[in-house]
Write a structure and sequence with these properties.
The complex is a heterodimer of chains A (640) and B (575). Chain A is of the alpha+beta class and 640 residues long. Chain A has 26 helices and 17 strands. Chain A folds into three domains: 4-149 and 435-639, GroEL-like equatorial domain (GROEL, domain 1), CATH 1.10.560; 161-233 and 397-428, TCP-1-like chaperonin intermediate domain (GROEL, domain 2, 2-Layer Sandwich), CATH 3.30.260.10; 235-395, 3-Layer(bba) Sandwich (GroEL), CATH 3.50.7.10. In chain A, the strands form five sheets. Chain A has a six-stranded mixed sheet with strand order 7-13-12-8-10-11, sandwiched between helices. In chain A, a hairpin with a 5-residue loop joins strand 2 and strand 3. The two termini of chain A are 33 Å apart. By secondary structure, chain B is of the alpha+beta class. Chain B folds into two domains: 25-150 and 418-572, GROEL, domain 1 (Orthogonal Bundle), CATH 1.10.560.10; 230-262 and 275-376, GroEL (3-Layer(bba) Sandwich), CATH 3.50.7. In chain B, strands 7-13-12-8-10-11 form a six-stranded mixed sheet, with helices on both faces. A three-stranded antiparallel sheet of chain B has the order 4-15-19. In chain B, strand 2 (56-58) and strand 3 form a beta hairpin. In chain B, helix 4 packs antiparallel against helix 17. The chains are: A alpha+beta (640), B alpha+beta (575). At the A-B interface, helix 1, strand 2, strand 9, helix 11 and helix 12 of A face helix 1, helix 4, helix 6, strand 9 and helix 9 of B. Strand 2 of chain A pairs parallel with strand 20 (567-572) of chain B.
Chain lengths: 640, 575
């Protein structure tokens, strides 16, 4: 018999609340680190909700499902995993309260539980539908006017956009605490400006950094954090396999090998038969074969010498004959170079790796300005830089060295960097993308969402908004709950107008539910002091003028690129207020918008489940909690 | 609380074996259990600090070897982590020690004191973290200054200050059980070995050589010695009578045992009557013949040499050394200029041969082959002797640490005053500075002036508690109120007799005199700015600490303490 477990709303709520209780410890300005030890004794510290949740090794199916949703969301956006859990828990609580209060809202059911579940399911579906159709407009109309625009177009080390810096500081503060946020912000900006491709979109270089971050950074433990720095060129995380000669002429020539330099005479499955009296083997026997492979090594090395090559990077471990031959030829050889590093090397040098050693052409040969050993912490690595990279790729390649007293901390800093790239990429995404997708799915939807006086010119308004959104990338807003307060207010207003205009007062307006749930986020931020919460709310609500249209006009004024961030922030109509809010930091509107959508999708998925089947396989061959991106994407996105 | 228990029921690994759920601790620094563990760890490390430290015996429950030590790297590794916070601190300190070889106990005692003091002063963790970080930058900036009162520039013209530095490291490890002349001898040897590894003619970049340490049990410490070049075990009784120096030598990195490993993964079928072994041996003998023809007199192989080839070479008067090991390859290549050979079938190129002088040195019952080059070398061998194994292994460890510390001076040619004087000086400096800049710093750090001063006081007390830890015989620790150096007063003396009892401060630079004022370290005293020492001071410091290691230890300690203070939740996988 397969044991059945009827799933009640309260079970779901309980599971999510348990997750919330962990995440809360590192949430907000007063939050701290969560410390893990693995069964291997490895110590890990983190403030990232994603890492905390994925490290838990949960067994509860619902909790695992939530964690997967969080994982998926924050892998894309790099941010918002703790808010995700918080918002989800809050929504569940409100839905639970609504459903238990009025269980027979829609259709009569046999049991209270079943009708409760049905109500909850219905509410979640409506919430998602509402968010997919109306949320973007509400945000564009009510939140964006209070935001600023981050531009990375003219991103150099000296003249940073202030708002971009603030965005990064806020991000690093939530990840690494107050102590290091400024330091890592500067390091991050420096890294970005080095890799900024001239005359190209900034998102291009951020995407590149995000993809090749593994090969681009080196973690060093046992050294203070303040020793973290950028170093020119690339670091290959291997040591020289041959003694590296002291002084060399420059520039150097280098090649990359994919295979073995010494040919393998017998591949798996081959059989070498040694017979007696055979003409070939009679005088030399097996020795003949091994001498042949040695001769071919010599000829390869001789060919390389004729090209003037002095650095060999190999993906595989080479035989001692190869090492000795390279040493005698005065070449440096590095073996077992990882795939990521080879890929970065080939991208930066513009050469292709050699797989057949007998065919070496000039396009295989890269030019380096130097190639030397580099001692970082306990390890000796190979440090090299590319010749004429600035002319060819228009970037100054550099690598990041992340130092920390312990491995866990260094790892945490590296993760924060990686997530910062993702966060910036999401922030730079225009909001429009989701809108076009929506228009395709629901082209006939009437624009009933806007206020009564807006209905007449609803369509025009929508077109106008879209045109604006095309240019609008990288919208940010003050942190500290501003987004939630504004959206709460907007949803509240909207719900009010809905209940007035539409004559179905029996139906609970879902926008009110969402509005209520959103407030839980700032409530946690100011959890230490309720007074601060109220003050913050009043301050934000005071920014909202009576006429929404005047606001969007205001927004257009501030639309232009903010050359000197501080000045143009002041020039904003609510200058004083904005500046004050700036102290709280900034967060990306796009990230927040995607977060709300992701939470609602997760909620719908959660509430659609009504039963858990515990199957007992003989062997648990099924991979648990797999981090496989393919299975993740196929599972979570059933939003039909 | 019900949430925590519910959570543990959620946490079960879905693997084949049911695993026990993780243990969660909320706000670990508030739990008395964690605090007790940290206090115990602090007491343990504190009592192992300094030259008069109490030794620790480490032995496991299954009868393994007993280790006597007071070295942080050994001690910390022996502490099995009972709590994640303990292992976090342990990991940080061990990482520091593996990079810098010194000041591990300083870092751990300071870090644990910071955590303990932070628990006492009832401030928000965020405030303490920010103030700690600010004061740390004050300290490091002060230490980097040219005129810093606790820094000594090292003079490479005389070896005196280097020997003092080496001796401070060696004498801080009482497990070696060295008498005064013995520790002086070892310090001199350490400096001598270090100087031998520094190349004389420097090309564009300096590349230090290597010291190979050979421990020898059962001899007097004073018999320890340093030789330029390498000392290798002799294979059997050899006579060098008929060999003229220098000798031509060849070095093989491939195995000469007669195996063919590089053919690939395929199968080899040998039919009856084919004798592959003899074919390979013939090939090896070919090699031997060529080497003999080239007048090679020393034949060295990293791996195994086939006995037939060995016999053949020896019969022809060649010294054969096999199983050299990978660690000696690089020094031998540097010493002789030989290039390692790994091909068996091609003739050895002429450039691959090296040249070296060989002599035989008797050492007690053993004879060693001494290889030394014709010219200068940066390779040297240190023979360390001691009476028994425990002391010898600690001595070897200490000598390696000393070498590392001496090498660090090349990066920054300065040292810090030892004997607790740097700590008291820094504490006085920070106390003075933080009183002065309280109005500017507290708004920047986002805290009130009182909070800033309270957190600053906790920082200074932690620094002073490290200086206090040097004293283990119930003596009192004092600070003088002019130079802020550290003084110890034996338990049988009172403050009035201070001038007679302690003639010199901890580092030996300041002399006691009539008009000096002292204060006990654990009492409050009025803040003051430490006066710089007169440059024409006749006294040389007797205790010096490595500058690079100590600055790093200071930073690592504060950063680790900050990290620990920031921990709000602990999840422990107890499987």
């Amino acid at each position: 018999m397969v044991p059945l477990e009827q799933l009640h709303l309260s079970h779901v709520l309980q599971a999510v609340s348990a997750l919330e209780s962990i995440v809360l410890r590192s949430f907000g300005p007063e939050g701290g680190q969560v410390l893990f030890t693995r069964d291997t004794g490895q110590v890990m510290v983190s403030r990232s909700g994603k890492r905390i949740l994925t490290a838990l090794h949960l067994d509860h199916p619902l909790a695992r499902m939530v964690v997967r949703c969080v994982w998926k969301h924050s892998t894309i956006t790099g941010d918002g995993s703790k808010t995700f859990v918080l918002l989800l828990a809050s929504l569940l609580r409100i839905i639970h309260a609504t459903a238990t209060k009025d269980p027979h809202m829609f259709q009569p059911h046999n049991s209270t539980e079943a009708s409760e579940a049905a109500t909850a399911r219905h509410l979640a579906d409506r919430l998602l539908e509402f968010a997919l159709t109306e949320l973007d407009e509400l945000i564009v109309l009510n939140v964006l006017p209070h935001g600023f625009r981050v531009s990375l177009e003219n991103f150099t080390a000296e003249t940073h956009d202030l708002s971009c810096q603030t965005l990064l500081v806020s991000f690093f503060r939530t990840r690494l605490g107050y102590a290091y946020c400024d330091f890592f912000r500067n390091l991050f900006c420096e890294l970005l400006s080095h890799w900024k491709v001239k005359d190209d979109r900034p998102s291009f270089s951020i995407q590149f950094l995000n993809n090749s971050f593994l090969a681009l950074h080196t973690q060093v433990s046992g050294v203070p954090v303040s020793c973290s720095r950028l170093i020119e060129g690339q670091v290959i995380h291997r040591d020289f396999a041959t003694p590296c000669p002291q002084v060399r002429k420059q520039p150097l020539k280098a090649v990359v090998f994919n295979g073995y330099l010494q040919p393998k005479l017998l591949t798996t499955g081959d059989v070498l038969e040694l017979r007696c009296g055979d003409k070939v083997t009679e005088d030399r026997g097996i020795v003949h074969f091994s001498s042949w492979t040695e001769k071919s090594v010599e000829s390869i090395i001789a060919t390389l010498q004729s090209f003037g090559v002095s650095v060999l990077l190999c993906a595989l471990k080479q035989s001692s004959a190869v090492l000795a031959a390279a040493t005698q030829a005065g070449m440096c050889l590095v073996e077992c170079v990882s795939e990521e590093e080879i890929s970065l090397f080939t991208q930066l040098s513009g050469v292709t790796p050699i797989s057949d050693c007998r065919r070496i052409h000039p396009e295989h040969i890269a030019t380096l300005t130097f190639c030397k050993p580099l001692l970082l912490g306990a390890h000796r690595y190979v440090h090299l830089d590319f010749h004429d990279c600035e002319e060819r790729l228009k970037v100054k390649p550099c690598s990041l060295v992340i130092c920390a007293p312990s491995e866990g901390q260094a790892d945490q800093h590296a993760c924060a960097f990686q997530d910062a790239f993702r966060m910036l990429l999401t922030a730079l995404e225009p909001v429009r993308k989701t809108q076009t997708a929506l228009e395709e799915t629901i082209p006939s939807k009437k624009c009933t969402s806007l206020h009564a006086d807006n209905i007449s010119n609803g369509t025009a308004c929508r077109v106008h908004l879209h045109q604006k959104c095309v240019t609008e990338t990288g919208c940010v807003i003050s942190a500290g709950g501003t987004f939630e307060f504004l959206l709460h207010h907007a949803l509240h207003q909207y719900g009010h107008s809905c209940s007035v205009s539409v004559n179905t007062s029996a139906v609970v307006p879902v926008s009110q539910l969402l509005a209520k749930a959103l407030l839980s986020v700032p409530r946690q931020i100011y959890s230490r002091n309720l007074k601060h919460f109220l003050q913050a709310q009043t301050r934000v609500v005071a920014l909202i003028p009576k006429q929404p249209h005047a606001l969007s006009a205001n927004f257009i004024h501030t639309e232009g690129p903010l050359g000197d961030g501080k000045l143009s922030l002041c020039s904003c109509k609510n200058g004083n207020m904005s500046l004050k809010l700036l102290d709280l930091g900034l967060e990306s509107v796009s990230c927040k918008y995607q977060l709300v959508l992701a939470v609602l999708q997760c909620l719908t998925n959660l509430l659609r489940i009504n039963m858990v089947l515990q199957t007992h396989a003989v062997l648990h061959t099924e991979s648990h909690d797999s981090l496989n991106a393919h299975s993740e994407s196929s599972e979570g996105e059933d939003e039909d | 609380m019900h949430i925590a228990s519910y959570l543990s029921s959620l946490m079960q690994m879905s693997r084949l074996v049911k695993k026990s759920p993780s243990v969660c601790t909320d706000l670990p620094l508030n739990s008395s259990d964690v605090c007790n563990k940290l206090r115990l760890m602090k007491e343990l490390l504190k009592s192992s600090y300094g030259p008069t430290a109490r030794l620790k015996q480490v032995h496991n429950n299954i009868g393994g070897a007993v280790v006597t030590t007071s070295t942080s790297s050994v001690l910390l590794q022996a502490i099995s982590s009972s709590h994640p916070i303990v292992s976090l601190i342990k990991g940080s300190i061990l990482n520091h020690v593996s990079r810098f070889s010194d000041c591990g106990l300083f870092a751990s005692v300071f870090c644990l004191s910071l955590i303990e003091e932070a628990g006492r002063c009832d401030l928000s963790q965020n405030v303490i973290i920010r103030v700690n970080k600010h004061l740390l930058s004050l300290c490091t900036a002060h230490l980097q200054q040219e005129d810093c009162g606790c820094k000594v520039q090292l003079d490479f013209c005389s070896s005196q200050s280097l020997i003092t530095l080496a001796r401070s490291v060696i004498s801080s490890k009482p497990t070696c059980v060295l008498s005064e002349p013995e520790s002086a001898h070892i310090s001199r040897l350490a400096v001598q070995a270090f100087l031998l590894t520094v190349p004389c003619n420097i090309p564009d970049k300096v590349r230090l050589g290597r010291t190979v340490t050979i421990p020898m049990e059962g001899h007097s410490v004073l018999e320890s010695a340093v030789f330029p070049g390498l000392l290798l075990d002799t294979p059997e009784n050899i006579s060098l009578g008929n060999l003229c120096s220098p000798l031509r030598m060849v070095l093989f990195s491939a195995s000469l045992a007669g195996d063919l490993s590089e053919l690939g993964d395929g199968r080899i079928e040998v039919h009856q009557g084919v004798d592959t072994d003899s074919q390979i041996v013939d090939q090896l003998l070919e090699l031997g013949k060529q080497v003999l023809k080239d007048e090679v007199k020393l034949f060295v192989c990293q791996k195994v040499i086939h006995p037939v080839l060995q016999h053949y070479l020896r019969c022809n008067g060649v010294i054969v050394i096999e199983r050299l090991g990978i660690s000696l390859m690089e020094p031998l290549i540097q010493l002789t200029g030989a290039q390692p050979v790994a091909t068996l079938h091609t003739t050895v190129p002429w450039e691959a041969y090296g040249e070296v002088h060989v002599s035989v040195r008797p050492f007690g019952s053993k004879t060693k082959l001494h290889l030394h080059p014709a010219g200068k070398t940066t390779i040297c061998t240190m023979i360390l002797c001691h009476r028994n194994e425990t002391m010898l292994s600690e001595l070897k460890l200490v000598c390696q640490k000393t070498e590392h510390v001496l090498r660090l001076t090349l990066r920054e040619p300065c040292a810090l005053l030892g004997g607790g004087c740097t700590e008291t000086h820094l504490a006085a400096y920070v106390r003075h500075q933080s009183k002065n800049d309280v109005s500017e710093s507290s708004p920047v750090l986002g805290c009130s002036q009182t909070e800033y001063l309270l957190a600053g006081e906790a920082f200074c007390r932690s620094l002073e508690s490290v200086a206090t830890s040097l004293e283990h015989d119930d003596g009192a620790s004092l600070i003088d109120l002019t130079h802020a150096h550290h003084w110890t007063l034996p338990s049988d003396a009172t403050e009035e007799h201070l001038e007679d009892a302690a003639a010199l401060c901890g580092c030996g630079v300041v002399q006691s005199c009539q008009n000096k004022k002292w204060s006990y370290l654990n009492t409050e005293y009025a803040e003051f700015s430490p006066e710089p020492l007169l440059t024409a001071s006749p006294l040389q410091p007797t205790v010096l600490d490595s500058f690079t290691a100590k600055v790093n230890a200071l930073e690592v300690a504060v950063e680790t303490a900050n990290l620990v203070l920031d921990v709000r939740y602990v999840i422990q996988d107890v499987n």
